[in-house]
Amino acid sequence: MMRCTTKSMESISKDLSFKSLYWSQPGSSLLHIGVHGSNLTCFHPVGDVRPFHSKGPSKNICFILGYCSGLILIFVHGCFCVANPVTKKFRFLDYPMLQTKKSIGFAVDKIDESTQRFKIVCITEAAASNPSETMYGFHINAGNSWKISKTKITCISSDLMRDMKPVYFQEGLYWLRSDGNIITFNPKTEKARLIPTKLNHQAGAKLLLGADDNHLTLISATEEMIYVYSLENIFTDPKWILTRQIKNEPVHEIMLSCWYVEAFDGRHVLVRAKDEIEDVIYGYDLKANMWEVMGLLPGWCDAGRDLYQFKPSWYPVIGLQNQNNSFRSEREVSIEVIMELIHGHFRT
């Protein structure tokens, strides 16, 4: 009987859906790197506040530009790289036109029950015939080559929000602008539109665009309070509706040198609080209604971090390839260092 049970468990553990579901509950691991690039990456496995960092600096400065459905988007040595750390498969994509990190969107979809595909989208800005307007365009790569979408959208000029990553939600990429409006682009249909919204937030509040299971979300944080908004009626009469108010305990109760709202995955709002002694990532669990320490940052960490809430995926991804063990370039070694840092915590 025990032999049968063990055999059944071995069969279950090899099932991709089971593994992805098992490791995605109940929270996320943390992956972060310096905003200006670094040759050292830091990782906190779910439930472990200790920082693990890559073994030795990589040969190249790396940027982590995005995360989606178990895949990470890295920029290294003039190239994009899409990588799945738990399967250790990756793909390099040349793109010589990278100007700002905020222009890059990363999308991952399931095309059937067992296969994923990815797309990278770069939003471009150009002057329109009307001096007060901007024309947005889109470059797309689905793993083979770059193409320029025929889709263009022209609207009153406003900068994309500084240091704000685009969000992928329900088959669309969303860029928040300084005027509160949102540019959205569907990589599959290549349709784009401007979503008119108004930001009702206090002056000086720190903002973060995110998403939960059903809505785009906006986090607006002051030293005293954190406000969580959901975007309702997104295609008809879009409005930000206040859904939660949270006392910002990590910031409000401590004298800090700096603090940041780092991430939101639909359940945990992450706040980084740094004083003269400690550099800590706190998470507020919206279901448990409580703060907890999610990660302790080592002293060598930069003030600014690109931080992602990481959940693994074992699904095959179209276009990703195995490592070439016979010959590895410097950029491949740099990617391998990041993948190995994460891979070691998800061996089954």
Q: Please indicate the percent range of residues in DSSP E strands (runs of 2 or more).
A: 35-45%
Which architecture does the CATH hierarchy give at level 2? Answer: 6 Propeller
What shape does the CA trace take? globular
Number of domains: 1
> Whole-Å distance between the termini?
23 Å
Q: Please report the first level of CATH classification, the CATH class.
A: Mainly Beta
Provide tags for this entry.
Neuraminidase, four-stranded antiparallel β-sheet, 25 strands, 348 residues, single chain, globular, mainly beta, five-stranded antiparallel β-sheet, disordered N terminus
Structure, explained:
The chain is globular. It is mainly β and 348 residues long. It has one domain (29-343): 6 Propeller (Neuraminidase). The chain has four helices and 25 strands. A hairpin with a 4-residue loop joins strand 23 and strand 24 (290-296). Mean pLDDT is 88; it is low at 1-13.
Topology:
Elements: H1 2-14, H2 16-23, E1 29-34, E2 42-44, E3 52-53, E4 62-68, E5 71-76, E6 79-84, E7 89-94, E8 104-112, E9 115-127, E10 133-141, E11 146-148, E12 153-156, E13 167-169, E14 172-176, E15 182-185, E16 192-195, E17 206-211, E18 216-221, E19 225-232, E20 239-247, H3 249-252, E21 258-264, E22 268-274, E23 279-285, E24 290-296, E25 305-310, H4 330-343
Organism: Eruca vesicaria subsp. sativa
Keywords: Membrane, Transmembrane, Transmembrane helix
Pfam family, one: FBA_1
